[in-house]
Structures are given as structure tokens and as C-alpha cells.
Amino acid sequence: MNPSASTHVLVRGQVLHFVADPGPADAPAAWQYFDDGALWISDGHIHAAGPWSDISAALPPGIRHAATLHDHRGHLVLPGFIDCHLHYPQAGVIASFGRQLLDWLNDYTFPAEARFADVREAERSAAFVVDRLLAHGTTTASVFATVHAHSVDAFFNAASAKNLRMLCGKVLMDRNCPENLRDTATSGDRDSRALIERWHGQGRLRYSITPRFAASSTPQQLQLAGELFASRPNLHLQSHLAENPAEIAWVKALFPERRSYLDVYAHYGLTGPRALYAHCIHLDAADRQALAASGTAAAFCPSSNLFLGSGFFDHAASAATGMRVGLATDVGAGTGFSLLRTLGDAYSVSQARAAPLSGLRGFYLATLGGARALYLDEFIGNFTPGREADFVVLDWAATPELAWRMEHTQSLAERLFALMILGDERCVVATHVMGERVFQRTRPGYQPGH
Ligand SMILES: [Zn+2]
């Protein structure tokens, strides 16, 4: 291909990305940081990432002249954030009072999801959530729709209009839920197959088979979901696991013959590569080993787990087994779309487990860790040449408190940790998808002296 016929984008800023999990000791080989760095993007993909001086010297004059330059000197340029678990129909019940998981579902979640019988409600919500994800620097997510097939159409239509790499699926739920949200094993399978035909592999979209959790599906529905998961390559699967003690006791009563909650899913063929479970809090060592050995991933949802009083995910013990772990908001039990705020909560949860999560490892979780948990790291998650150029630009000093704190930091690790604790969506200067800017902050950040 003639490179001068391609579209070129140059980004100058403080470029950081990860090539591996830094682990508990912040292994320096796990990341690359270029203080005066650059991304050279060609046709929406990373062509090169490195020091500005090297990349600008390597640019042929014709490309330098034709390229679009985004000058973000002084700002942090990171791969787009990846939210490994959220429920787009629940955006309207964020911040609902006083319930733990099972009552939360009955009192808030199910009524909200029932309103999606109206396709206009689904379309309005999908447009709102996609817009807010981009404003928070999130460019990929693994998303639950509702039981209604048209709720997946609405989300994928909104995502494809922005050319986003997204996973979504229709909730499978054929028992222990309100009549107006119940499918059957047969209808759920039929609807999922039709949605897969319509959307799976279209552009950057992939379908994720979505049984809500073991207690809301019959054995027949779980069986069909497992058969569907195995039926063609690259299908994904998402569900919930071991979030809350009452939920776990209920699953044990429904499936007394299985060793553990995880073993229910394993029995029906619902584990393995591209299977992803939210929460994974109350697990024993055998379950953690089984998740890791099978390649099944966990979505760490600290804000949701604190908000619903569910418990403390053991990130250190999970990661130590080799389990793939990503970070997630779990909106609407999560308290917002910001993965920066979620990282702050991840730190608090890690302290409750006496294994503090560092800034470097935190930003790994929100980027490459998420891509690996979703088995999408051949496409997204870092700035390796050939990856899709989804990235977020962050202002280190978006608030007076951040600016003041940054004045008193010495190292990148310290700065990242301060950003993870004090940062939020006000830090997001711009979000780009396949090189194209899809969000830009309209108000400037904090200006010292004003
Ligand atoms: Zn969830």
C-alpha cells in the first residue's frame, strides 16, 4: 500500500502504555513511558509509539505535511479505558438506596429493565450510555442489555455509529424473575442466535452470550447457553459469580450436586477462554485455580461491591494464580462510569485485603488488563504497532487538589497513584476512537493562579 494515500494522525504528549502486568512489585519491563512522546497513527491503527524526537525524525516529509497533529504536551496519553462489566439499562437506577444484591435486583433492576419493552427507552438509554462512556475515556465495554432482543440492537446501533469495539448480549433469564422479563430456554437460544447472525463480527462488535446468573436460568437454559458458546469461534460469554452470601446460598440450594457456584457454570460448559464473570469475591483457592487454569476471566467491580455491601475482591490472590482480571464499573450498582473513580475504590478494596494496588498496576488493569480479560488484546489495550488507535488524554491537574498534589510528587508511580485516587471524569481532555476524536472537554481544567 502507498503510505502517502493513508490517513495519518500524530499525537504528542506523555505517552504511557503497558506490555505486561507490572505485578505486585511494579516490574519496570511491564510498561513504556515517553515524557515527550508521540503516537503515529495510520488508517486508525498504531504505526509507532515512542519519543517525539524519534518519531518526528522518522516521518517522511509528505506524511508530516499531511498528518493531523494533536498537541497534548503536558497531558497523559493512555490506551482507552476498558470497562469489563456494566448494565446499560441500569444507568437510570445508579444511586438507588438501601438494598443488597437480591433485593436490589427485585426493587430497582427489574423494574428498570422492564421499561425496555419499549424500544424507544432502549434507544435513548443506549445513546446516553455510549455518549457518557466516551466522556469518561472508556472506549470498550462488556455490556449487559435486557432480556429483550431489541435492547441489543439498540446498543450495537449506538456503538457502531461511533465505530466502537464493544461486546453486548441479550440477558438469558427463564426463572426466578418477573414474568415480563422472562424468556424460555428455547426462545432465549433462538433470540441469541438471531442476534449473533445480525451483529457478531460486524465491524468491531462481538456478541457475548449473557445468562444473568445461575439462579435465574434453568439447567436447560444453561445447557443451551454452553452449547451455543461452543458452537462457533470467538463468541464471548458473560455472567455473574460469587457476589453476595445470600446469592451463593441460593445457588447452592438450586444446584446441590455441584461442588461450588463456579462448578455450576463449569458443568454446563460456560467457562474457558472469552468467558468473563463479574465479582468473583467469595471464592476458595480451588475455584481461583479453576478460573485461572480454564482461562476464564474475572471483572473486578470495587465501586459496586462497596455500594451493595457485597465484599472485597481479592485481586492479589486472583492475579497470583494467573487469572485474567479486568476492572469494571458494574453500573447501575456501580456509582458512575468513571474508571478513574473505580480505581480509587479498587485501592480501598485492596487495602481491606492488605495488598495495596499500586498506580501502575491500577492503570494496567484499566487498559491492557481489561483487554486481556476480554481476549481482545490482539486489537486493543496498548500502543503496540498494529493495534487499533483508541486512546484517552488525561489532565494531571484538572482540579486544584490534583494540581497541588502533583507539585509534590517525584516519580511517575507517585503521579499515577495520585491520579488514581484524586482523578475523575474532569481529567478527561479528549477521547479518540481509531484515531478520530470522539470527545473533547469543553471547559479547560484548573489554571493555577486563577
Ligand atoms: Zn452486574
Main attributes of the structure:
seven-stranded mixed sheet, 16 helices, single chain, nine-stranded parallel sheet, binds zinc ion, Urease, subunit C, domain 1, TIM Barrel, globular, 2 domains
Describe the protein.
The model has no long low-confidence stretch (mean pLDDT 96). The strands form 2 sheets. Strands 5, 6, 7, 8, 9, 10, 11, 12 and 13 form a 9-stranded parallel β-sheet that branches. Strands 3-2-1-4-14-15-16 form a 7-stranded mixed β-sheet. The longest helix has 17 residues. The radius of gyration is 21 Å and the shape is globular. Helix 10 links the parallel strand 11 and strand 12. The chain is built from 16 helices and 16 strands. The chain folds into 2 domains: 128 residues, Urease, subunit C, domain 1; 293 residues, Alpha-Beta Barrel (TIM Barrel). 55% of the residues are buried. The protein is α/β, with parallel strands linked by helices and 450 residues long. Helix 14 packs across helix 16 and helix 15 runs antiparallel to helix 16. It binds zinc ion. The site of zinc ion has 5 residues, from strand 5.
What is the secondary structure topology, with strand pairs?
Blueprint: E1 8-18, E2 31-42, E3 45-51, H1 52-58, H2 61-66, E4 68-79, E5 81-87, H3 101-114, H4 119-135, E6 138-144, H5 149-161, E7 166-169, E8 171-172, H6 185-199, E9 205-211, H7 219-229, E10 236-241, H8 245-254, H9 261-267, E11 275-279, H10 285-294, E12 297-300, H11 302-307, H12 315-320, E13 325-327, H13 339-352, H14 359-373, E14 391-394, H15 400-407, H16 412-422, E15 428-433, E16 436-440
Parallel strand pairs: 1-4, 5-6, 6-7, 7-9, 8-9, 9-10, 10-11, 11-12, 12-13
Antiparallel strand pairs: 1-2, 2-3, 4-14, 14-15, 15-16
Zinc ion binds near residues 85, 87, 240, 278 and 330.
